[in-house]
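Re: the 131-residue chain
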Amino acid sequence: MDNNLLQHGAISWFELMTTDVEAAKGFYGTLFGWKYEAYAGDPAAQYHMLKVNDEPVGGIMKTPPQCSGYPPIWGAYVTVADIDATAAKVVELGGKVIVPPTDIPNIGRFSVFSDPQGAVLSAITYFPRQP
């Protein structure tokens, strides 16, 4: 991942949650020329990284059970220095934490929140890269 995307405040990842991963991959692959690779860190092979020029820029996943009933949606992740402090600041500023800070093995720690008007966004603190 580009070091600029690891800076606090950078939009660093895009993700689609959908009910039909294969149909979405076909649509966006044809439309934009995206390529896909199953994420090796997911033993169930449910998460697919989308790539542009062989660089991962986002992912596509099946809508998890806790989100059933919601329509497919694209989301963005903003890099932050400290996800726990960011989640606390969201509440302090009148927002709502929807998914509390949660670890993603070998990737980082993320949270999903809404601003006071209800717009939803995700933030992530990436774990240091291992050589």
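The beta strands are 11-18, 35-38, 47-52, 55-62, 73-79, 96-104, 108-114, 120-126.
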